[in-house]
Protein backbone atom coordinates (compact mmCIF):
# COMPACT_ATOMS: atom_id res chain seq x y z
CA UNK A 1 0.00 0.00 0.00
CA UNK A 2 1.11 3.50 -0.71
CA UNK A 3 0.32 6.86 0.75
CA UNK A 4 0.12 10.44 -0.34
CA UNK A 5 1.68 13.43 1.29
CA UNK A 6 -0.77 14.79 3.85
CA UNK A 7 -0.68 18.39 2.67
CA UNK A 8 -2.33 17.42 -0.59
CA UNK A 9 -5.69 16.73 0.91
CA UNK A 10 -5.97 19.06 3.83
CA UNK A 11 -8.94 21.39 3.82
CA UNK A 12 -10.66 22.77 6.90
CA UNK A 13 -9.82 20.69 9.91
CA UNK A 14 -10.89 21.03 13.46
CA UNK A 15 -9.15 20.46 16.74
CA UNK A 16 -6.96 17.54 15.83
CA UNK A 17 -3.28 17.83 16.54
CA UNK A 18 -2.07 15.92 13.52
CA UNK A 19 -4.04 17.59 10.76
CA UNK A 20 -2.82 20.42 8.63
CA UNK A 21 -4.49 23.18 6.78
CA UNK A 22 -3.82 24.05 3.19
CA UNK A 23 -5.37 26.15 0.48
CA UNK A 24 -8.79 25.01 -0.67
CA UNK A 25 -7.48 24.81 -4.21
CA UNK A 26 -5.13 22.10 -3.14
CA UNK A 27 -7.97 20.08 -1.66
CA UNK A 28 -9.94 20.43 -4.86
CA UNK A 29 -6.94 19.35 -6.84
CA UNK A 30 -6.53 16.07 -5.05
CA UNK A 31 -10.15 15.08 -5.60
CA UNK A 32 -9.59 15.25 -9.33
CA UNK A 33 -6.32 13.35 -9.31
CA UNK A 34 -6.30 9.65 -9.95
CA UNK A 35 -2.84 9.24 -8.54
CA UNK A 36 -0.12 11.15 -6.74
CA UNK A 37 3.61 11.02 -6.35
CA UNK A 38 3.47 7.75 -4.45
CA UNK A 39 1.48 6.01 -7.18
CA UNK A 40 -1.87 6.02 -5.47
CA UNK A 41 -4.41 3.73 -7.06
CA UNK A 42 -7.42 4.61 -4.98
CA UNK A 43 -9.95 7.36 -5.56
CA UNK A 44 -12.43 8.98 -3.13
CA UNK A 45 -15.46 6.84 -2.32
CA UNK A 46 -18.14 9.46 -2.92
CA UNK A 47 -20.48 11.57 -0.82
CA UNK A 48 -23.71 9.65 -1.36
CA UNK A 49 -25.31 6.57 -2.87
CA UNK A 50 -27.61 8.46 -5.24
CA UNK A 51 -30.74 8.06 -3.18
CA UNK A 52 -33.49 9.77 -5.20
CA UNK A 53 -34.82 11.58 -2.11
CA UNK A 54 -31.75 11.97 0.13
CA UNK A 55 -28.80 12.29 -2.27
CA UNK A 56 -26.20 12.93 0.42
CA UNK A 57 -27.30 10.04 2.64
CA UNK A 58 -24.84 7.18 2.74
CA UNK A 59 -21.47 7.09 1.01
CA UNK A 60 -19.78 5.23 -1.79
CA UNK A 61 -16.86 2.84 -1.84
CA UNK A 62 -17.34 0.64 1.20
CA UNK A 63 -19.76 -1.63 2.99
CA UNK A 64 -20.01 -1.56 6.78
CA UNK A 65 -20.26 -4.87 8.65
CA UNK A 66 -20.15 -3.61 12.24
CA UNK A 67 -20.49 -0.47 14.34
CA UNK A 68 -18.98 -0.43 17.81
CA UNK A 69 -20.36 2.67 19.52
CA UNK A 70 -19.21 3.73 22.97
CA UNK A 71 -21.32 6.64 24.12
CA UNK A 72 -21.29 8.65 27.32
CA UNK A 73 -24.13 11.09 27.90
CA UNK A 74 -24.58 13.79 30.49
CA UNK A 75 -28.24 14.90 30.35
CA UNK A 76 -27.65 18.00 32.49
CA UNK A 77 -25.14 19.43 30.05
CA UNK A 78 -26.69 17.67 27.06
CA UNK A 79 -23.20 16.51 26.29
CA UNK A 80 -22.37 13.38 24.32
CA UNK A 81 -18.91 11.85 24.15
CA UNK A 82 -18.52 9.08 21.62
CA UNK A 83 -16.12 6.66 20.07
CA UNK A 84 -17.28 4.89 16.93
CA UNK A 85 -15.35 1.94 15.53
CA UNK A 86 -16.68 1.36 12.03
CA UNK A 87 -15.60 -1.92 10.46
CA UNK A 88 -16.09 -2.01 6.70
CA UNK A 89 -14.93 -3.61 3.48
CA UNK A 90 -13.68 -1.43 0.65
CA UNK A 91 -15.68 -2.05 -2.53
CA UNK A 92 -13.07 -0.26 -4.64
CA UNK A 93 -9.56 1.08 -4.19
CA UNK A 94 -9.99 4.06 -1.90
CA UNK A 95 -7.80 7.07 -1.30
CA UNK A 96 -10.54 8.60 0.88
CA UNK A 97 -14.05 7.84 2.03
CA UNK A 98 -16.88 9.71 3.69
CA UNK A 99 -18.90 9.04 6.82
CA UNK A 100 -22.14 10.89 7.54
CA UNK A 101 -21.99 12.98 10.71
CA UNK A 102 -23.97 16.11 11.45
CA UNK A 103 -22.82 18.51 14.16
CA UNK A 104 -20.52 17.45 17.03
CA UNK A 105 -16.77 17.97 17.13
CA UNK A 106 -14.46 15.32 15.73
CA UNK A 107 -11.26 14.98 17.73
CA UNK A 108 -9.47 12.23 15.87
CA UNK A 109 -9.85 9.60 13.20
CA UNK A 110 -7.68 6.54 12.82
CA UNK A 111 -7.86 3.91 10.11
CA UNK A 112 -6.16 0.56 10.61
CA UNK A 113 -4.61 2.00 13.76
CA UNK A 114 -2.91 4.92 12.02
CA UNK A 115 -3.91 8.56 12.30
CA UNK A 116 -5.95 9.61 9.29
CA UNK A 117 -6.59 13.06 7.84
CA UNK A 118 -10.12 14.26 7.88
CA UNK A 119 -12.24 17.22 6.87
CA UNK A 120 -15.85 18.20 7.29
CA UNK A 121 -18.39 19.77 4.98
CA UNK A 122 -22.05 19.65 5.93
CA UNK A 123 -22.90 16.10 6.89
CA UNK A 124 -19.86 14.66 5.14
CA UNK A 125 -16.91 13.65 7.28
CA UNK A 126 -14.23 12.90 4.71
CA UNK A 127 -11.51 10.56 5.93
CA UNK A 128 -8.24 10.09 4.17
CA UNK A 129 -6.40 7.10 5.59
CA UNK A 130 -2.66 7.16 5.90
CA UNK A 131 -2.52 4.27 3.46
CA UNK A 132 -4.85 3.70 0.55
CA UNK A 133 -7.43 0.96 1.04
CA UNK A 134 -7.55 -1.76 -1.54
CA UNK A 135 -10.73 -3.17 -3.00
CA UNK A 136 -11.89 -6.09 -0.86
CA UNK A 137 -9.87 -5.02 2.15
CA UNK A 138 -11.59 -4.98 5.54
CA UNK A 139 -10.64 -1.99 7.65
CA UNK A 140 -11.66 -0.31 10.89
CA UNK A 141 -12.05 3.42 11.25
CA UNK A 142 -12.13 4.84 14.76
CA UNK A 143 -13.72 8.27 15.22
CA UNK A 144 -13.57 10.13 18.54
CA UNK A 145 -16.10 12.91 18.90
CA UNK A 146 -18.13 14.93 21.37
CA UNK A 147 -20.51 17.82 21.72
CA UNK A 148 -24.19 18.65 21.99
CA UNK A 149 -25.98 16.36 19.54
CA UNK A 150 -28.55 17.95 17.26
CA UNK A 151 -32.20 17.54 16.56
CA UNK A 152 -32.54 16.87 12.83
CA UNK A 153 -35.63 18.36 11.23
CA UNK A 154 -36.86 16.32 8.27
CA UNK A 155 -38.08 17.82 5.00
CA UNK A 156 -41.61 17.10 6.27
CA UNK A 157 -40.94 18.95 9.53
CA UNK A 158 -40.77 15.92 11.86
CA UNK A 159 -38.00 15.80 14.43
CA UNK A 160 -35.41 13.05 14.72
CA UNK A 161 -31.75 12.71 15.54
CA UNK A 162 -31.00 13.27 19.20
CA UNK A 163 -34.10 14.50 21.04
CA UNK A 164 -33.59 15.76 24.59
CA UNK A 165 -36.30 14.55 27.00
CA UNK A 166 -37.30 15.59 30.50
CA UNK A 167 -34.80 13.22 32.14
CA UNK A 168 -32.60 11.96 29.31
CA UNK A 169 -32.72 11.68 25.54
CA UNK A 170 -34.26 9.73 22.69
CA UNK A 171 -32.18 9.02 19.60
CA UNK A 172 -34.23 8.20 16.49
CA UNK A 173 -33.17 8.02 12.88
CA UNK A 174 -35.83 7.77 10.19
CA UNK A 175 -34.82 8.71 7.59
CA UNK A 176 -31.42 10.30 8.28
CA UNK A 177 -31.17 11.19 12.00
CA UNK A 178 -28.54 8.65 13.04
CA UNK A 179 -25.84 11.03 11.75
CA UNK A 180 -26.69 13.29 14.70
CA UNK A 181 -25.20 10.78 17.15
CA UNK A 182 -22.74 8.54 15.32
CA UNK A 183 -20.68 8.66 12.12
CA UNK A 184 -21.64 6.00 9.59
CA UNK A 185 -22.90 4.98 6.22
CA UNK A 186 -26.29 6.50 6.83
CA UNK A 187 -28.42 4.79 4.21
CA UNK A 188 -30.78 1.79 4.46
CA UNK A 189 -28.87 -0.06 1.71
CA UNK A 190 -25.91 -0.70 4.05
CA UNK A 191 -27.01 -2.79 7.03
CA UNK A 192 -24.62 -3.88 9.76
CA UNK A 193 -24.35 -5.43 13.22
CA UNK A 194 -24.04 -3.08 16.19
CA UNK A 195 -22.58 -3.04 19.67
CA UNK A 196 -23.84 0.04 21.48
CA UNK A 197 -22.53 0.85 24.96
CA UNK A 198 -24.12 3.82 26.71
CA UNK A 199 -22.92 5.30 29.99
CA UNK A 200 -25.36 7.49 31.91
CA UNK A 201 -25.63 8.88 35.45
CA UNK A 202 -26.56 6.19 37.97
CA UNK A 203 -30.33 6.00 38.35
CA UNK A 204 -31.03 6.47 34.66
CA UNK A 205 -31.27 3.61 32.19
CA UNK A 206 -30.14 3.36 28.59
CA UNK A 207 -32.18 1.18 26.25
CA UNK A 208 -31.19 0.29 22.70
CA UNK A 209 -31.68 -2.33 20.00
CA UNK A 210 -30.86 -6.01 20.36
CA UNK A 211 -30.09 -7.63 23.69
CA UNK A 212 -28.71 -6.19 26.91
CA UNK A 213 -25.35 -7.88 27.50
CA UNK A 214 -24.32 -6.20 30.72
CA UNK A 215 -25.05 -3.40 33.11
CA UNK A 216 -22.25 -2.14 35.32
CA UNK A 217 -22.10 0.78 37.74
CA UNK A 218 -18.99 2.47 39.02
CA UNK A 219 -18.29 5.94 40.33
CA UNK A 220 -21.92 7.00 40.02
CA UNK A 221 -22.27 6.10 36.37
CA UNK A 222 -23.90 3.05 34.80
CA UNK A 223 -22.92 1.47 31.49
CA UNK A 224 -25.46 -0.51 29.47
CA UNK A 225 -24.04 -2.72 26.73
CA UNK A 226 -26.44 -3.66 23.93
CA UNK A 227 -25.74 -6.02 21.04
CA UNK A 228 -27.57 -6.27 17.72
CA UNK A 229 -26.25 -9.31 15.88
CA UNK A 230 -28.72 -9.28 13.00
CA UNK A 231 -28.17 -6.71 10.22
CA UNK A 232 -29.69 -3.33 11.01
CA UNK A 233 -30.18 -0.20 8.91
CA UNK A 234 -28.88 2.98 10.55
CA UNK A 235 -32.38 4.54 10.52
CA UNK A 236 -33.54 1.79 12.88
CA UNK A 237 -30.83 2.31 15.49
CA UNK A 238 -32.18 3.77 18.72
CA UNK A 239 -31.05 4.88 22.16
CA UNK A 240 -33.49 5.88 24.89
CA UNK A 241 -32.13 7.33 28.10
CA UNK A 242 -34.41 7.96 31.07
CA UNK A 243 -36.02 6.63 34.21
CA UNK A 244 -37.63 3.63 32.62
CA UNK A 245 -39.56 0.84 34.29
CA UNK A 246 -38.42 -2.45 32.78
CA UNK A 247 -40.57 -5.53 32.20
CA UNK A 248 -39.11 -8.73 30.80
CA UNK A 249 -41.07 -11.69 29.50
CA UNK A 250 -40.92 -14.24 26.68
CA UNK A 251 -43.25 -15.34 23.93
CA UNK A 252 -44.39 -18.97 23.88
CA UNK A 253 -41.70 -19.70 21.32
CA UNK A 254 -39.07 -18.37 23.74
CA UNK A 255 -38.40 -14.96 22.17
CA UNK A 256 -37.21 -12.51 24.87
CA UNK A 257 -39.44 -9.43 25.30
CA UNK A 258 -37.85 -6.34 26.90
CA UNK A 259 -40.18 -3.42 27.51
CA UNK A 260 -39.13 -0.01 28.87
CA UNK A 261 -41.82 2.45 29.92
CA UNK A 262 -41.65 5.97 31.29
CA UNK A 263 -43.31 5.69 34.71
CA UNK A 264 -45.90 8.34 33.83
CA UNK A 265 -47.15 6.08 31.02
CA UNK A 266 -46.98 2.79 32.93
CA UNK A 267 -50.58 2.49 34.00
CA UNK A 268 -52.08 3.48 30.67
CA UNK A 269 -49.83 1.20 28.61
CA UNK A 270 -49.77 -1.92 30.80
CA UNK A 271 -52.66 -3.76 29.16
CA UNK A 272 -51.66 -3.12 25.55
CA UNK A 273 -47.97 -3.91 26.12
CA UNK A 274 -48.95 -7.19 27.76
CA UNK A 275 -50.27 -8.16 24.31
CA UNK A 276 -46.83 -7.98 22.61
CA UNK A 277 -46.37 -11.79 22.76
CA UNK A 278 -49.87 -12.30 21.36
CA UNK A 279 -49.26 -9.84 18.51
CA UNK A 280 -45.87 -11.39 17.68
CA UNK A 281 -47.34 -14.90 17.68
CA UNK A 282 -50.19 -13.76 15.40
CA UNK A 283 -47.73 -12.03 13.08
CA UNK A 284 -45.54 -15.15 12.98
CA UNK A 285 -48.53 -17.12 11.72
CA UNK A 286 -49.19 -14.49 9.07
CA UNK A 287 -45.64 -13.48 8.07
CA UNK A 288 -43.31 -16.30 9.17
CA UNK A 289 -40.75 -16.56 12.00
CA UNK A 290 -39.86 -13.37 13.89
CA UNK A 291 -36.71 -12.13 12.16
CA UNK A 292 -34.72 -11.03 15.24
CA UNK A 293 -33.46 -12.49 18.50
CA UNK A 294 -35.55 -10.32 20.83
CA UNK A 295 -38.40 -7.85 20.81
CA UNK A 296 -40.19 -5.39 23.08
CA UNK A 297 -41.04 -1.71 23.13
CA UNK A 298 -39.98 1.66 24.47
CA UNK A 299 -42.74 4.00 25.65
CA UNK A 300 -41.83 7.62 26.23
CA UNK A 301 -43.75 10.74 27.06
CA UNK A 302 -45.81 12.11 24.19
CA UNK A 303 -43.81 15.24 23.60
CA UNK A 304 -40.49 13.48 22.98
CA UNK A 305 -41.01 12.44 19.36
CA UNK A 306 -44.72 12.77 18.70
CA UNK A 307 -44.68 9.68 16.46
CA UNK A 308 -44.03 5.96 16.74
CA UNK A 309 -41.06 4.38 15.00
CA UNK A 310 -40.28 0.77 14.16
CA UNK A 311 -36.78 0.80 15.69
CA UNK A 312 -35.29 -2.68 15.35
CA UNK A 313 -36.31 -5.29 17.90
CA UNK A 314 -38.22 -2.81 20.01
CA UNK A 315 -40.28 0.00 18.49
CA UNK A 316 -40.57 3.37 20.17
CA UNK A 317 -43.98 4.86 21.03
CA UNK A 318 -44.55 8.43 22.12
CA UNK A 319 -47.02 7.25 24.77
CA UNK A 320 -49.28 4.29 25.44
CA UNK A 321 -50.02 2.89 21.95
CA UNK A 322 -53.37 1.59 20.76
CA UNK A 323 -53.42 -2.00 19.55
CA UNK A 324 -53.40 -0.91 15.87
CA UNK A 325 -50.21 1.08 16.30
CA UNK A 326 -48.60 -1.79 18.20
CA UNK A 327 -49.50 -4.18 15.35
CA UNK A 328 -48.19 -1.67 12.79
CA UNK A 329 -44.77 -1.20 14.42
CA UNK A 330 -44.29 -4.90 15.17
CA UNK A 331 -45.24 -5.80 11.57
CA UNK A 332 -42.44 -3.46 10.46
CA UNK A 333 -39.98 -5.87 12.08
CA UNK A 334 -40.63 -8.14 9.06
CA UNK A 335 -41.35 -5.35 6.57
CA UNK A 336 -38.80 -2.57 6.82
CA UNK A 337 -36.45 -3.90 9.48
CA UNK A 338 -35.75 -7.37 8.07
CA UNK A 339 -36.73 -6.67 4.43
CA UNK A 340 -35.35 -3.14 4.11
CA UNK A 341 -35.88 -0.72 1.23
CA UNK A 342 -32.97 -0.23 -1.17
CA UNK A 343 -33.72 3.49 -1.23
CA UNK A 344 -36.20 5.94 0.31
CA UNK A 345 -38.27 5.71 -2.85
CA UNK A 346 -39.22 2.17 -1.79
CA UNK A 347 -40.66 3.36 1.50
CA UNK A 348 -44.15 2.15 0.50
CA UNK A 349 -42.88 -1.43 0.83
CA UNK A 350 -42.51 -0.70 4.56
CA UNK A 351 -45.67 1.23 5.16
CA UNK A 352 -48.03 -0.69 2.88
CA UNK A 353 -47.25 -3.96 4.65
CA UNK A 354 -47.41 -2.41 8.12
CA UNK A 355 -50.77 -0.81 7.29
CA UNK A 356 -52.06 -4.00 5.68
CA UNK A 357 -51.02 -5.86 8.85
CA UNK A 358 -53.42 -3.61 10.74
CA UNK A 359 -56.17 -4.49 8.27
CA UNK A 360 -55.40 -8.20 8.67
CA UNK A 361 -55.33 -7.93 12.45
CA UNK A 362 -58.82 -6.42 12.43
CA UNK A 363 -60.02 -9.05 9.97
CA UNK A 364 -58.62 -11.88 12.12
CA UNK A 365 -60.12 -10.43 15.31
CA UNK A 366 -63.74 -10.02 14.36
CA UNK A 367 -63.43 -6.44 13.13
CA UNK A 368 -63.61 -4.84 9.70
CA UNK A 369 -62.23 -7.04 6.91
CA UNK A 370 -59.44 -5.84 4.65
CA UNK A 371 -62.02 -5.76 1.84
CA UNK A 372 -64.14 -3.38 3.91
CA UNK A 373 -61.14 -1.16 4.64
CA UNK A 374 -60.29 -1.13 0.93
CA UNK A 375 -63.90 -0.27 0.01
CA UNK A 376 -63.95 2.57 2.53
CA UNK A 377 -60.74 3.93 1.06
CA UNK A 378 -62.20 3.91 -2.46
CA UNK A 379 -65.51 5.39 -1.32
CA UNK A 380 -63.66 8.16 0.51
CA UNK A 381 -64.92 7.49 4.03
CA UNK A 382 -61.93 5.61 5.45
CA UNK A 383 -60.96 8.67 7.51
CA UNK A 384 -63.42 10.96 9.24
CA UNK A 385 -61.69 13.90 7.59
CA UNK A 386 -62.42 14.57 3.87
CA UNK A 387 -59.01 16.08 3.21
CA UNK A 388 -57.35 12.91 4.52
CA UNK A 389 -59.53 10.72 2.27
CA UNK A 390 -58.54 12.84 -0.71
CA UNK A 391 -54.83 12.86 0.25
CA UNK A 392 -54.68 9.07 -0.13
CA UNK A 393 -54.63 9.55 -3.92
CA UNK A 394 -52.18 12.48 -4.06
CA UNK A 395 -49.39 10.53 -5.77
CA UNK A 396 -48.47 6.95 -6.72
CA UNK A 397 -47.12 4.91 -3.77
CA UNK A 398 -43.98 3.91 -5.65
CA UNK A 399 -43.21 7.51 -6.69
CA UNK A 400 -43.59 9.89 -3.74
CA UNK A 401 -43.73 13.49 -4.92
CA UNK A 402 -40.74 14.60 -2.85
CA UNK A 403 -38.59 13.96 0.21
CA UNK A 404 -41.17 15.90 2.23
CA UNK A 405 -43.86 13.36 1.25
CA UNK A 406 -42.27 9.96 1.88
CA UNK A 407 -44.49 9.38 4.90
CA UNK A 408 -47.74 10.68 3.42
CA UNK A 409 -50.99 8.74 3.04
CA UNK A 410 -50.36 7.32 -0.46
CA UNK A 411 -47.31 5.49 0.91
CA UNK A 412 -49.43 3.97 3.70
CA UNK A 413 -53.08 3.45 2.76
CA UNK A 414 -52.78 3.51 -1.01
CA UNK A 415 -49.83 1.14 -0.65
CA UNK A 416 -52.03 -1.17 1.42
CA UNK A 417 -54.64 -0.96 -1.35
CA UNK A 418 -51.99 -2.22 -3.82
CA UNK A 419 -51.49 -5.28 -1.62
CA UNK A 420 -55.23 -5.79 -1.45
CA UNK A 421 -55.52 -5.61 -5.23
CA UNK A 422 -52.90 -8.38 -5.43
CA UNK A 423 -54.95 -10.42 -2.95
CA UNK A 424 -58.10 -9.90 -5.02
CA UNK A 425 -56.24 -11.02 -8.14
CA UNK A 426 -54.66 -14.20 -6.74
CA UNK A 427 -56.98 -15.25 -3.91
CA UNK A 428 -56.36 -15.61 -0.17
CA UNK A 429 -54.15 -18.72 -0.23
CA UNK A 430 -51.76 -17.48 -2.89
CA UNK A 431 -51.68 -14.03 -1.27
CA UNK A 432 -50.69 -15.55 2.05
CA UNK A 433 -47.87 -17.44 0.30
CA UNK A 434 -46.70 -14.25 -1.42
CA UNK A 435 -46.58 -12.28 1.83
CA UNK A 436 -44.70 -14.98 3.74
CA UNK A 437 -42.50 -15.77 0.76
CA UNK A 438 -41.55 -12.12 0.29
CA UNK A 439 -40.48 -11.83 3.93
CA UNK A 440 -38.44 -15.03 3.60
CA UNK A 441 -36.88 -14.25 0.21
CA UNK A 442 -35.34 -10.96 1.35
CA UNK A 443 -34.92 -11.73 5.06
CA UNK A 444 -32.19 -9.49 6.55
CA UNK A 445 -31.65 -7.95 3.12
CA UNK A 446 -32.77 -5.08 0.90
CA UNK A 447 -35.38 -4.91 -1.82
CA UNK A 448 -36.98 -2.37 -4.11
CA UNK A 449 -40.28 -2.05 -5.95
CA UNK A 450 -38.99 -3.84 -9.05
CA UNK A 451 -37.91 -6.79 -6.86
CA UNK A 452 -41.41 -6.87 -5.41
CA UNK A 453 -43.35 -6.79 -8.66
CA UNK A 454 -40.99 -9.42 -10.14
CA UNK A 455 -41.51 -11.61 -7.07
CA UNK A 456 -45.30 -11.37 -7.26
CA UNK A 457 -45.27 -12.15 -10.98
CA UNK A 458 -43.05 -15.18 -10.42
CA UNK A 459 -45.32 -16.53 -7.67
CA UNK A 460 -48.50 -16.08 -9.72
CA UNK A 461 -47.42 -16.64 -13.33
CA UNK A 462 -50.99 -17.02 -14.60
CA UNK A 463 -52.14 -13.63 -13.38
CA UNK A 464 -51.68 -10.43 -15.37
CA UNK A 465 -50.62 -7.65 -12.99
CA UNK A 466 -50.00 -5.03 -15.67
CA UNK A 467 -53.09 -3.00 -14.81
CA UNK A 468 -52.50 -3.19 -11.04
CA UNK A 469 -48.95 -1.90 -11.37
CA UNK A 470 -49.89 0.79 -13.89
CA UNK A 471 -52.98 2.11 -12.10
CA UNK A 472 -52.38 1.42 -8.41
CA UNK A 473 -48.63 1.45 -7.95
CA UNK A 474 -47.37 3.92 -10.55
CA UNK A 475 -50.47 5.75 -11.73
CA UNK A 476 -51.62 9.26 -10.84
CA UNK A 477 -54.97 9.90 -9.21
CA UNK A 478 -57.58 7.56 -7.81
CA UNK A 479 -57.89 4.38 -9.88
CA UNK A 480 -61.39 3.71 -11.23
CA UNK A 481 -61.74 0.64 -8.99
CA UNK A 482 -61.10 -3.07 -9.30
N1 LIG B 1 -42.20 4.88 9.95
C1 LIG B 1 -43.04 5.40 11.02
C2 LIG B 1 -44.24 4.50 11.12
O1 LIG B 1 -44.99 4.37 10.21
C3 LIG B 1 -43.48 6.79 10.81
C4 LIG B 1 -42.39 7.78 10.71
C5 LIG B 1 -41.80 8.41 11.73
C6 LIG B 1 -41.70 8.23 9.55
N2 LIG B 1 -40.81 9.25 11.28
C7 LIG B 1 -40.73 9.15 9.96
C8 LIG B 1 -41.80 7.95 8.21
C9 LIG B 1 -39.88 9.79 9.05
C10 LIG B 1 -40.94 8.56 7.31
C11 LIG B 1 -40.00 9.47 7.74
O2 LIG B 1 -44.44 3.86 12.08
ZN1 LIG C 1 -45.03 2.55 9.57
Give structural notes.
This protein has helices at 24-32, 266-273, 276-287, 323-331, 347-364, 370-379, 386-391, 409-426, 428-441, 449-459, 466-473, and strands at 43-44, 62-74, 79-90, 94-100, 105-111, 114-115, 117-121, 124-128, 138-147, 151-153, 159-164, 169-172, 192-201, 205-208, 211-218, 221-232, 239-242, 245-250, 256-261, 295-299, 316-317, 339-341, 445-447. The model is unreliable at 1-39 (pLDDT under 50). 26% of the residues lie in helices and 29% in strands. The chain folds into four domains: 6-38, no CATH class; 40-240, tricorn interacting facor f3 domain (Immunoglobulin-like, Sandwich); 244-333, Neutral Protease Domain 2 (Neutral Protease, domain 2); 339-473, Neutral Protease Domain 2 (Neutral Protease, domain 2, Orthogonal Bundle). The N and C termini lie far apart (62 Å). With 482 residues, it is of the alpha+beta class. The longest helix is centred in the C-terminal third of the chain and has 18 residues, at 347-364. Strand 5 (105-111) and strand 6 form a beta hairpin. Helix 3 (276-287) packs across helix 4. It has an eight-stranded mixed beta sheet with strand order 6-5-9-3-2-13-16-15, with no helix packed on it. The protein has a five-stranded antiparallel beta sheet with strand order 10-11-12-17-14, with no helix packed on it.
Amino acid sequence: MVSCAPHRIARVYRSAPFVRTAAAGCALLVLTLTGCDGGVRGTPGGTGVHDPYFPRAGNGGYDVSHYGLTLDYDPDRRHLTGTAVVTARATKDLSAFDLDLSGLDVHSVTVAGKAAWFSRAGQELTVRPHDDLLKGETFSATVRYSGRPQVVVDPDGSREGWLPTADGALALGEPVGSMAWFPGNNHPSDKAAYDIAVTVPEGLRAVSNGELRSETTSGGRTTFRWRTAEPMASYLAMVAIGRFEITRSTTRSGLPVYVAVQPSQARESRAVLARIPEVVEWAERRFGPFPFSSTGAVVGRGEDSGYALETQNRPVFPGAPDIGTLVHELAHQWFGDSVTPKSWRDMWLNEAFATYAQWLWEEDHGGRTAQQAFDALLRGDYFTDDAANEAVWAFPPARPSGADHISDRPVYERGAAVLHRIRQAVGDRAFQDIVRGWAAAHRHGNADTADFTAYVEKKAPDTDFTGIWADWLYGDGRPAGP
